[in-house]
Amino acid sequence: MPYVHNTLERLRKSSPAQTEFYQAAEEVLECLRPLFERSPYYHDHSIIERIVEPERQIMFRVCWTDDAGRVRVNKGYRVQFNSALGPYKGGLRFHPSVTSGIIKFLGFEQIFKNALTGLPIGGGKGGSDFDPKGKSDAEIMRFCQSFMTELYRYIGPTTDVPAGDIGVGAREIGYLYGQYKRLTGRYEGVLTGKGLNWGGSIGRKEATGYGAVYFAQNMLEARGDSIKGKTCLVSGAGNVAIYTIEKLYEVGAKPVTCSDSRGTLHDPRGVDLALLKELKEVKRTSLEAYLEQHTEASYTPVDDYPTDGHAVWRIEGDVAFPCATQNELTEADAETLLGNGVTCISEGANMPSTAAAVDRFLAARIAYGPGKAANAGGVATSQLEMAQNSSMQQWPLQKVDARLKEIMANIYKQCADTAEEFGEPNNLVLGANIAGFRKVADAMIDQGAV
Fold first, then answer.
1. What are the GO cellular component annotations (predicted)?
2. Residue 164 annotated as binding?
3. Phi then psi dihedrals of residue 336, to 5 deg
4. Domain end point (choices 343, 369, 395)
């Protein structure tokens, strides 16, 4: 189909050196081929040419002062990708790997993820190449205040509502919100992931991890299986990984791994959740400290990882939850996972599997939940936080968790039904991309050439 190829070639020329963005766009557009063949009017309205271009890209300098009094400079980004379904919604990532291409890939994925939730939110993403690791609370506060001083004029509760992502947790959201309030004089739901005593939603920090487990449950139950009793592999050690592990214990599974930027932890008896939370949420230290209390566990430093993959995926298990970062799971990792008997993968991170790895999972016909579907629980609960802010209420955990479970079941059904409709019943990648795209594209057509 020449216009898919032409669109991708045009992107490579107009947005050079944005590899992750090309990867995300190619995955979506290739999955849409059967839809375009059946419904040519999407081509007639130039939807793909429009949907791959952000409505707005904001880039800015962030100057802040470190504890030694030296002025430091970082880059800041906000990509407001698509507002056909509602205000832009997507996290802020503070990490040295952040570039304009990374933010565009994340924002592009966010469009379809948000559409799958069925909630009125568009897609956006933002962040900075600032690294919170090793910084004092005062330095992080000064950086966040400077970042918000540049961003505040472009966001608002009915315009663009950022949330957290890698490197942006409750502490950073608090500093960002305080500066927004200082600059605007308004107390409103402009950020999600806020503290529980000043507008946050109970269950928000747990939502992405919980949702990934709920999605895995739906995939397994559709195959007459259950997650109960399964040995589970989890990567990452941030919010998503921690609360994936917490929910796995609640549903009777056994998570045995997690990882951080320094290495991979394996505890065959099951990860000590309380200790993990202490190390990562309180002390903010390396997972290697886990061994001080659990000598039966093992820790593999990054330097000892296989050259063609990640140590966490070389451990035997039944279900895998990639919850760290993009492209962490390679084709070699996929081969190892399949060889070890893994039958279900639910992605808690954004695009954590390379294109070649995804191809292997689809060819093996295992239960594979792509990130734009499996990790949508976080943004869905962010929208529930927006709803609570609008009505000046705070819902109990039972209500939030019940809504999250319902939303994840609906996302799975949309993906599965759409895959069935297009003759590939086990291909949830195709199902997620077509289902999300149709919802956004139809709204774009309704709203005219804007």
1. cytosol
2. yes
3. -65, -45
4. 369
